[in-house]
Amino acid sequence: CVLCGRTDDCPEKYGEKRTYVEYNLTVHYYCLLMSSGIWQRGEEDEGVDGFLIKDIRKEVNRAAKLKCNICKKKGASIGCVAPKCKRSYHFPCGLQRQCIFQFMEDFRSYCWEHKPVQQLTDKEPKGASQCTICLDLVEHLPVYTVLKSPCCKNAWFHRECLQYQALSAGIYFFRCTVCNNKDKFQEEMLRMGIHIPERDASWELEENAYQELLHCYQHCDVKRCLCRKGRNYNEPDSKWEIKRCQYCGSRGTHLACSSMKSWEQNWECMECRSIFAKSGKYRKRKRHSLATSEKINGTNCLLEEPSPKSPRQSSGSANNFLLQSPKITCQNNLSPCSHLELPASNRVTMSLTPVMSNGSWSLTQQCLREQRREVCNILKELKVQVQTKTTRLNINAENIWSSALKGFRQRNFSPTNTIEVSFSNCKSRSKTNTSTASKHHFFQLLMHHLQNSSLFEGSSGKNLSFDFQAVKENLYFEAGKMIAVSLVHGGPSPRFFSQTLFNCLVYGPENVKPTLEDVADVDVAQTIKMIKYANNLSSLQSTLQDCCEFLAAAECLRPVTALCDKNMLVNDLLTYHVIKRTSVPLESFRQGLKTLGVLEKMQMHPDAFCSILCHKPERLSAEIICDLFTIHSSSDVNKVKCADFWMGYLQDVESGGSVVTLEDILLFVTGSCYIPSIGFDPEPTIKFLRIRYPIGNKLLNSLELPITKTYQQFKNKMEVTIRNTLRAEKE
């Protein structure tokens, strides 16, 4: 190596040893990365991974003048970054003397005297414990060869074990082996000199690792094969084409033997039905007709049904009435034209007195409003953690999940940084949109994607599903983290949690009893329902005999000697399918929700957070919009008069007498078509000025309205401006 002078070829210690015959150059990759006087000035395909050849030669010449403080030989290209420290050394010499090399940011190096050391408290247990990687004993000492996990109290590692694991797992899979934490763990390990390569895991890069999966199975395995030419006969594009199990691919059936209309339909074998019952994919196949009532040879086709779930009762829609906002000091019982002489056709007769009194609101509605106000204050307390330092997310709206995941996993992302969002390849976002408006739109798209993703199951109130690939890629943790960040940074709340999922998060799964409504799989729910409503012992035993594979998969296969035994059996089945089956995703999801302290606040204020996580948002009404804005005016006369017009216009919009909607008004002023759970910052205001047309300032959440003589003039200006502005932004 031209930098360290050694011939060792040890990629684990010194990085890949590369030789370039045309340049007469050999170099260790780590020696090059850590050298103090060279920077990556070229593209990735230029020189040595972006290090230009002429720059490498300059660095070699510079290092030739420096003597290593360890081996006393020339060529020491690496220097300690500590102030006033003039020590220089070769990379292998630094490793031998236990220097720290940080493979991040500026690739800093620290000598043996100034290197960072993990701080251990007096409460740390003394003695030794097992390294959770090699399972050999490791002493609890603050020495170079031992590292402690920053996220677990009793997790200790050998430095060498961690380095080998990091090289194998790569940046996407390297995490704490005890609690599965990734961000905090990687940050500490990088600080302590562990190199985490930016590539996929080694087991994902192995060539032909899954070659056996390419074998196509062609044999009909149903009990009664209808094909006269035998079970091995396969005729493509006919009813005798063999369809393989969608899960294992090692069992098959002729389309006609399973009454399947086309090859596009899914089919699963009996073995996979019992195995995948643990992941909620059990199907007890039924015969039912097509939606179009089409039949084949007089027999209904077998199709897979969706997995509907009984919709939960929503919190109720808002009533159409207008309350006077507490933020304005106008007189009661004003109408928009009470002080104007207008023709009868243009007259708006409206009072600010509510059409219905507050007492007629349901108790549930009032309670939800109070709880949402409480959540707003709690989230504002959490937002104090957010700093002015910004993190930019480049989002592709057409692939919202992948781009969001990439942004949240980038090294410089921190939940405590202010988030800025820029959209790419998205025609629906204007280049003139503010960062706040883009952020609102991003979080709205993200929450909508999560609601319809494979991470959750159910139609209305959703529970966690079991997706093996998502567990492997730690996506449940990322989903919880995204929801927590959305709540604190002014995005929407998910509002699709089932009460059971919420209770599991807040009180722990061991304290929750699921109901039949929580089972998303319609076939599983039907089977449990048959057991639950069996009216005598013989019918119960007959039902259990028919679904013994299903019971065995749920670990509930047991003798039943009395009808009352069914109650405990049903409870155990519900607990398994709703809670036990998803215990791993639930724990990962809980860890993600701990971001910014959101889960802790949920556990302290469960009723308040339930209102924004389990209930649909209250429909925008004139009353809500009116209460949202604080009105400012240059004179009391203008304030009362213009406020009268503003109130009347909101009432018109709500009743459908306008071409714009209440969401359009909110979007025009704030850049968001919804009210965030944390509220707007700054709070929306209204000013009445002598201007020609309304002006919406999305940065200040300010609405400037023109002072007009008549209500009709006010309404016309509002509609023309809002409609044209939103249309221009969309185009």
Automatic annotation (TrEMBL):
PHD-type domain: residues covered: 1-115
Pfam families: HECT, PHD_G2E3, zf-HC5HC2H
Predominant location: nucleus
Keywords: Ligase, Metal-binding, Nucleus, Transferase, Ubl conjugation pathway, Zinc, Zinc-finger
Keyword Metal-binding belongs to the record: yes
GO cellular component entries: nucleus
GO molecular function: ligase activity; ubiquitin-protein transferase activity; zinc ion binding
Cited SMART domains: HECTc (SM00119), PHD (SM00249)
Pathway, per record: Protein modification; protein ubiquitination
Subcellular location(s) per record: Nucleus
The name this protein goes by in its record: G2E3 ligase
Taxonomic lineage of the native organism: Eukaryota, Metazoa, Chordata, Craniata, Vertebrata
Gene of this entry: G2e3
